[in-house]
Amino acid sequence: YVNAIGTHNEFVLCMNNIIPFVNTSGYVFTHDMPMYSSLVSSEHNPRCSNLTVFRRPVGVVTPKNKWEIRAAIICSQEQGLQVRVRSGGHDYEGLSYLCKSPFVIIDMRNLRSISIDIKQETAWVQSGATLGELYYSIAQTSQTHGFPAGICPSVGVGGHFSGGGFGTMVRKYGLAADNVIDAYLVDATGRFLDRESMGEDLFWAIRGGGGASFGVIVSWKIKLVRVPPKVTVFNVHKNMDQHTVDIIHNWQYEAHKMKNELFIRLLIQYVNDDNNTSVQALFNSLFLGELKDLIPLMNEKFPQLGLNAEDCIEMSWIESVLYFAGLKGAPELLLGNKTDPYVSYFKAKSDFVTKPIPPHVFVRIQEKFYQQKLIFMIMDPYGGRMSEISESHIPFPHREGNLYNIQYLVKWEVNGVQASKDHIHWLKELYKYMEPYVSKHPRSAYLNYRDLDIGTNTHENNTSYMEAKVWGEKYFKGNFKRLTKVKSRVDPDNFFRNEQSIPLHQN
Ligand code: FDA
């Protein structure tokens, strides 16, 4: 970190002037205050904050209401500071808390209320809430409602919804962002806008285009979805051998065509159990229905997996949330993000697959995993509801024609420049190897699995549309142009910017 000196006093003074009746020491933290260090270092991927090009923030603001967000925006502009907005802090490249220029973090941790209207089947959720808190609150109110968002309970609503967001119900109900029906945002001029006052273009942009380019989203109104009182889950492990490669081959043809209620995720991973090393394929599934209906379905559509009733467990939807998160115990476990088990050094990349990958590729992947050890490939089937929604409905364009999404993820425990270099090199090798077998022109990527390797804004504040297309069309395809037009209208001075923010259209 490089210290930004001299501006924190002016920033605090400005905040005091705008909201004179609230003591700033309760929500503005500068480097001379004890809370500052813990607020600055609370991130999920230490790989990012180890990079020395980043500064320490001039201050961290933890607003309790929209007025404090507004004040932070206005004072940052007055002081020539940038802002980074952090909800759950899971950004894969740390863009919610790292910046190369003097900046302020707006941390949404105190804005995490959730209010559910079960009659209307809707909820208002603030951006600082986690997915776990949202799922828990829904289940406290109704056993037959849920919400289709990501699997990890500590992920923040703010970043997740604004980047798309998918999980075990993606085939039945689409993305989290597909199920957002209203939102409150504070824009670059400090105005509070809801769906009606922000207009349909901006409301479109923040559902998948990344909130960080457009403003600070305070809260979201979502449509809850119906889940049966009993769902069924299974987890089938197979050692990677020729037979498993054949099963994977079949999975590629069937998983996206199954009934929308059935989601079968495939995870390939290197396992080291008491020095017995192996590469395993894990078929991890949620069926929105009972076991008696699942078994005949699997026998008919995917008999190769050889699923037995003993492999399956019936449970409530909220129990399935814990099951997928790898948590054992009461639903209250979804509320704690203090001891987050997911903190580790990691780097990820993503792909979309539009044609089944030939079996020999999986044989080669297995060999690569033995050499490189801590790599995971997580494959989430699409189809179902995802294919019914048009590519331009929201900025997330990866719809019909995509069989599944791949996330490549490499993790390591040891800090150090060499460890990072080695692991990232392995990941890049695997990504390069996969090129012929995944989507092309462009080779697509998922914004919420952010990857700065696919391209960044080349100039801090005036990257041209043509330059940014390199990465922008990978995330957004044809929607990128519309995003730049919305950006030009709502933030013409490009105040909300970062390495992968939407540039202005006219540049
Ligand atoms: P964070 O706070 O870091 O924000 C991410 C981005 O959104 C940043 O650019 C930030 O500035 C911006 N932002 C955040 N809050 C904002 C606000 N209120 N207004 C405007 N901009 C805002 N994804 C998925 O689809 N399915 C999954 O199952 C998972 N699982 C998963 C597990 C783990 C362990 C990790 C680390 C990540 C995932 N993800 C995922 C990816 C996740 O969806 C993605 O990282 C989200 O952007 C995280 O949102 P946070 O609010 O936690 O991040």
Automatic annotation (TrEMBL):
Key words of the record: FAD, Flavoprotein, Glycoprotein, Oxidoreductase, Signal
Gene Ontology MF: a single term: oxidoreductase activity
Segments forming a coiled coil: none
Cofactor(s) this protein requires: FAD
PANTHER family: OS08G0158400 PROTEIN
InterPro entries, A to Z: BBE, FAD-bd_PCMH, FAD-bd_PCMH-like_sf, FAD-bd_PCMH_sub1, FAD-bd_PCMH_sub2, Oxid_FAD_bind_N, Oxy_OxRdtase_FAD_BS
A Pfam short name: FAD_binding_4
Name of the molecule in the record: FAD-binding PCMH-type domain-containing protein
Keyword hit for Cell membrane: no
Organism name: Tagetes erecta (African marigold)
UniProt keyword annotation of Oxidoreductase present: yes
PROSITE patterns named among the record's database cross-references: FAD_PCMH, OX2_COVAL_FAD
FAD-binding PCMH-type domain residues: 53-227
Family: Belongs to the oxygen-dependent FAD-linked oxidoreductase family.
